[in-house]
Design brief:
Protein name: Importin N-terminal domain-containing protein
Number of helices: 48
Keywords: Cytoplasm, Nucleus, Protein transport, Transport
Structural class: mainly alpha
Helix content: 55-70%
Distance between the termini: 46 Å
Radius of gyration: 38 Å
Number of strands: 2
Subcellular location: Cytoplasm; Nucleus
Largest sheet: 2 strands, antiparallel
Organism: Poecilia mexicana
Strand order of the largest sheet: 1-2
Family: Belongs to the exportin family.
Strand content: under 5%
Shape: globular
Oligomer: single chain
């Protein structure tokens, strides 16, 4: 077995190197066991920890070709520089600073690029520690490398690594050193940018194709004309019209490195005049590589391939996007910004230019996908961040830009590219809408400027969602697989398109309507005309369209009709409110048409037709019918406004619309129709009964039919659960919700109350029979049937209560009267099913909604009885058993129980105050001990919310003195009652801040802040230490801002005490730092009382304390700290 000397002095460098090479080869060999790998790892770690190991690593690096050995040796150096540098002898540091750069110069061409890059990083890490005091030529060495042609690539790698490691350093530096490094780097920026500009210019000029002037072609003339309007005589139009450079491989690699450096520099340097027009022009020269993939190389040169040319274009656009993403633009940079946009739109013109050989789409398809993504990113940043700055500039032709964006959008080669462009249009339309709303005086002139572009956009998007115009592309879209947002690719395509249509509608309502409605009418005529092709034979109906071509055309027309119905539904919101009267005629035409279509679909039963291609046409016919019902549902708010504003003049018209809509829905509420249609009809009924609420609805024969069907159905005819709930909700709404436009005396509450009681009695017929059940066993015959009855009935009752939870007292009274017997049955059954968590889960969900919506109607006595039953049933053992099964039904039961208690403790008045001690006891003595040391995130979240609500709503249970009295007395009266329970609650909160769950941490932090703002909690108890300790660990860094604010609020109770007592105590208790470091930390924590300065001091303290601990932990034993 191979070994490696623990004590490096005992072996020669040569033999150590051989042993190390053999070990490394063995470690990475496929046959080496994990146990042996651990042994080798331990050997290597021990070797690296020894004093002077770096000297041997220097020898290894100089004398090996083994990549594993090189990487290991560099890791030893990296560890030395980043963790042990402060304790290293100055002579050793000097030797390392001298040797490593020499090694880099000697070997950079012969080692793999990743070894070269790692060596560069180690040298930069030394610069991060020592430049400029002990390593004064660090940066000048890098600049010299860049200026030496043969070493320029190496210099650029060093420069990029320096930018990455020094501009945004990690926490292993003090704040003072970070600030110093940034300042030093900023001083170098003009020099660096000047050097990089020079390289780009030199290589462009060197490789530009110098050719005799060709005769003008139609396309070049068109390009110059376009440029004339875009640049208005800008000197850069000539530069950008120059022929493309043809780079050889070496030049290409160098220019790529320059652009990579620039991209990283631009990510942190502020916009300033150091970024010169010449530099911008050079970057744009190279950005052209992405959109001009054909060039003519100079004779005798080997030109780079298409992928490499695209890469240089991508890097150039990355630089541009880094600049454009900055929102803070100094005044003296705005002109540069304008120039940048002019240059980018020159590229946009090139991308969207048509000629005899290429369409725009074929040009874009040829381009690299990454380049197009970068270009789309640029357009998005321009529109979202800078359009407001540039739009009014006479030098920027915004309308021409929109024309180019239009061509770019509708010639995208991929769906993702098209979606991204639609997002850009959405941002632009939002910008325009905001601008128009804020400028009432010249609203029309602003709108007219963009009208043609918006009209064109609307028409093209409508064409793009229709198979009639865009069949090939639409058939590529997946309409089966759901994404993370639970929609298919087709649904996403349609939704994003319709969002843009809706935004245009908001700006140009009449025009948008006049564009959309005729297209809808055309497709509706095809659909309504199907009646003549229906052939009836016996009890079945058949659609007599069989020719393949006719079926295909019908399929496309039905798909388009479905999309257009969704479009019309999406526009419903633009017909209501202030514009109701002005757009009444258009909206009425739409609603009448929708009512006609839904009635036609239901009467002819198109969903049940036999067709020549059933797998295609049947779903199409069903979908059109469902979308027509959904579109009609979208106009329920318009119908409500119609009912309240004009129903007195058009009573018959309104009654006909509602009657027809109900007649269209009623036949579909049956198990015999596709579920999609059943749900659409149920949704429409819910909207009519909840939103429109016509007084005559209950008298309609179709409604009576639905009522009879639901109240007399047996198990075999029962609707699917979701549809059943919707229909029951609609019937309940009709009887419980107040009728609009009528006084209280005409609401017929008594009649409606009787009808509602009958409805609920019919719905709970089987459930109420269970009242006599006194015990069950898991093996009892019929148990599953009992469970099924409970699980079918309670969700329906819960839904009925939920739908009236925000309604008037009268509605809630009637609801509770109808439910009273079922509530009592549920309470009786609860103890029986306590060991069946799936059933108790349903029961508690029902009680939770009862407590939230009907606790006043239930009365104090009965509510108290329910709480008492729950508190006696949930023993500590029962709770523990449920909580320990995380994610189970039992766990959900405990969550709902705690939610119910949250409702109880929030109730004002004295009625439920007697339960407070029991609830607190349950919380702190039964639930908390079980969850304290476990993750149990769901139960924990509910338990802490319950604790918060107890404290917030019942503060005077603990502190009798009100805040007002305390203020009048000039301080906080600390007279406390129930002190043990208050202290236990505070300890529970404090303990949660020492655990890893960041969500609980954030929730509880917000609760304490709320208690402080409302009840001055921090005057009574402070959590300074909790947060200060957590801040020092990295586990909760995401909440650093929130913790700092909480510490500030605690400190502001008494700043003097915070600075004079708490801070010294805290620093003295900090482990891992010495007294001198504590003194520096204390000195740097400024005695400020405003939040921004305080925040800065806390951040500095946290950073520097972590830094000192890191330094001290890496010092050799016995090192003297100065």
């Amino acid at each position: 077995m191979l070994t490696f000397p623990f004590n490096i002095s005992q072996a020669s460098d040569e033999s150590s190197l051989r042993a190390l090479e053999n070990l490394m080869t063995e470690f990475f060999h496929s046959c080496t066991t994990n146990e042996r790998k651990r042994e080798i790892e331990e050997l290597l770690n021990n070797f690296a920890q020894q004093s002077g190991a770096w000297r041997h690593c220097l020898f290894f690096l100089s004398n090996t070709r083994n990549e594993y050995v090189m990487m290991y040796s560099l890791t030893v150096f990296e560890n030395l520089v980043n963790k042990m540098w402060i304790g290293l002898a100055s002579q050793d540091k000097m030797e390392i600073r001298s040797c490593l750069p020499k090694l880099l110069l000697a070997q950079h061409n012969s080692v793999p690029y990743f070894i070269r890059n790692k060596l560069c990083k180690v040298i930069v890490d030394i610069g991060r520690q020592d430049w400029p005091m002990f390593y004064h030529d660090f940066f000048t060495n890098t600049l010299q490398l860049i200026q030496t042609p043969a070493l320029a690539p190496l210099g650029l790698v060093m420069l990029k690594t320096t930018s990455e490691e020094l501009a945004c350093p990690r926490e292993d530096l003090s704040v003072a050193r970070k600030d110093e490094l940034r300042k030093l780097l900023l001083e170098q920026v003009p020099t660096v940018l000047g050097l990089l500009t020079g390289i780009l210019e030199t290589y462009w000029d060197k490789h530009s194709v110098i050719a005799s002037t060709p005769p003008p072609s139609p396309t070049s003339r068109e390009s110059v004309e376009l440029l004339g309007s875009l640049f208005q005589g800008s000197q850069y139009s000539k530069l950008l019209c120059q022929p493309m450079a043809a780079l050889d491989n070496e030049s290409h690699q160098l220019c790529c490195l320059v652009l990579e450096c620039l991209a990283h520099l631009f990510s942190w340097i502020p916009l300033s005049t150091s970024i010169t027009p010449t530099l911008l022009a050079s970057i744009f020269h190279f950005a052209r590589f992405g959109c001009d993939l054909r060039t003519k190389a100079k004779t005798g040169q080997s030109e780079v391939n298409k992928a490499d040319r695209a890469r240089i274009g991508v890097l150039a656009m990355t630089c541009v996007n880094e600049l454009v993403s900055k929102n803070c633009v100094p005044m003296d940079f705005e002109e540069y910004l304008l120039r940048m946009f002019q240059q980018t739109f020159f590229l946009l013109q090139r991308l969207t230019r048509e000629n005899n050989a290429h369409t725009v789409k074929s040009r874009l398809q040829e381009l690299d996908e990454s380049y197009l993504e970068k270009f789309t990113d640029f357009l998005r940043l321009f529109v979202s961040v800078h359009l407001r700055r540039i739009e009014s500039s006479p030098q920027f032709p915004i309308v021409e830009f929109l024309g180019l964006l239009f061509k770019y959008t509708f010639n995208q080669p991929t769906h993702e590219g098209y979606f991204a462009c639609l997002d850009i249009w959405s941002v632009f339309l939002d910008f325009l809408t905001t601008k128009i709303k804020s400028r009432l005086a010249d609203r029309e002139s602003v709108l007219n400027r963009y009208k043609d572009a918006l009209v064109l956009l609307l028409r093209e998007i409508l064409n793009r969602i229709q198979f009639r115009f865009n069949q090939a592309q639409l058939e590529e879209l997946d309409d089966e697989t759901l994404d993370d947002d639970q929609q298919t690719e087709w649904q996403r395509y349609l939704r994003q398109s319709l969002e843009v249509v809706a935004k245009v509608m908001e700006l140009l309502p009449s025009h948008a309507f006049s564009t959309l409605f005729p297209v809808l009418q055309e497709n509706l005529d095809v659909y309504l005309g199907l009646r003549q092709f229906i052939v009836t034979t016996g009890s079945s109906q058949r659609l007599n369209i069989t020719a393949e071509n006719d079926c295909r055309r019908l399929h496309c027309s039905l798909r388009d009709l479905s999309s257009l119905l969704q479009a019309v539904g999406r526009l419903a919101e633009h017909f209501i409110g202030e514009v109701f009267a002005a757009r009444f005629t258009d909206a009425l035409a739409v609603v009448e048409r929708l009512v006609e279509v839904t009635c036609y679909g239901s009467q002819t039963g198109l969903y049940d037709l036999e067709t020549a291609v059933p797998s295609v046409l049947k779903p199409d016919l069903t979908d059109v019918h469902a979308q027509a019902l959904a579109a009609l549902q979208a106009y329920s708010h318009w119908l409500t406004q119609f009912y309240s504003e004009v129903h007195s003049q058009n009573q018959s018209q309104f009654i006909n619309l509602i009657t027809s809509a109900v007649n269209a829905s009623s036949p579909l509420i049956t198990t015999k129709v596709p579920e999609k249609l059943l749900l659409s009809a149920s949704h429409l009924m819910v909207s009519i009964t909840a939103t429109v609420r016509p007084v005559f609805l209950v008298t309609l024969p179709a409604v009576q039919n639905i009522f009879n069907r639901i109240t007399t159905e047996n198990q075999s005819q029962r609707l699917p659960q979701e549809a059943h709930m919707f229909v029951c909700r609609a019937l309940s709404n009709m009887l419980l919700l107040p009728w609009p436009n009528l006084p209280e005396s005409e609401q017929q509450w008594q009649t409606r109350s009787n009808s509602h009681a009958s409805l609920v009695a019919a719905l709970t017929r089987e459930y109420r029979i269970l009242r006599g059940t006194v015990n069950i066993s898991p093996r009892q015959p019929g148990l599953d049937n009992v469970k099924a009855v409970i699980q079918q009935t309670l969700p329906v009752l819960r839904d009925i209560v939920d739908s009236i939870s925000s309604e008037s007292t009268k509605s809630r009274q009637i609801c509770y009267q109808s439910l009273q017997e079922s509530v009592q049955v549920t309470l009786n059954l609860f103890p029986v099913f306590i060991q069946q968590p799936d059933v108790t889960d349903e029961m508690l969900a029902f009680f939770l909604i009862l407590f939230q919506a009907l606790r006043v109607q239930m009365g104090v006595a009965f509510t108290g009885q329910i709480i008492h039953t729950f508190l006696s049933m949930f023993t500590r053992e029962q709770l523990a058993a449920s909580i320990l099964q995380e994610g189970s039904a039992g766990c959900r039961v405990v969550q709902k129980f705690l939610k119910i208690l949250q409702v109880v403790v929030q109730e004002p008045g004295q009625a439920f105050k007697p339960f407070l001690p029991s609830i607190l006891s349950l919380c702190m003595e039964q639930v908390y001990p079980v969850v304290a040391e476990r993750s149990s995130p769901d139960v924990k979240a509910e338990m802490f919310e319950l604790l918060y609500q107890i404290l917030h709503q019942n503060w005077r249970y603990f502190f009798k003195t009100s805040v007002l009295t305390s203020v009048q007395k000039g301080g906080v009266d600390d007279t406390m009652e129930n002190e043990a329970q208050f202290t236990a609650a505070m300890q529970a909160f404090g303990q949660s801040f020492l655990q890893t769950d960041i969500h609980i941490f954030k929730q509880n932090l917000s609760y304490l802040e709320s208690l402080n703002s409302k009840h001055k909690l921090y005057h009574r108890v402070l959590f300074n230490n909790s947060f200060s300790d957590v801040l020092l660990h990295k586990s909760h860094d995401l909440l650093q801002e929130e913790m700092t604010l909480a510490i500030y609020n605690m400190a502001s109770v008494d700043f003097d005490a915070f600075y004079s007592v708490f801070m010294p105590q805290f620093l003295n208790g900090c482990q891992g730092v010495d007294s001198n470091q504590r003194a520096v930390l204390a000195r740097n924590f400024k005695l400020e009382q405003d939040l921004p300065s305080f925040t800065q001091s806390v951040q500095r303290l946290v950073n520097d304390l972590r830094y000192y601990r890191l330094c001290n932990s890496s010092l050799p034993t016995g090192t003297i700290k100065l």
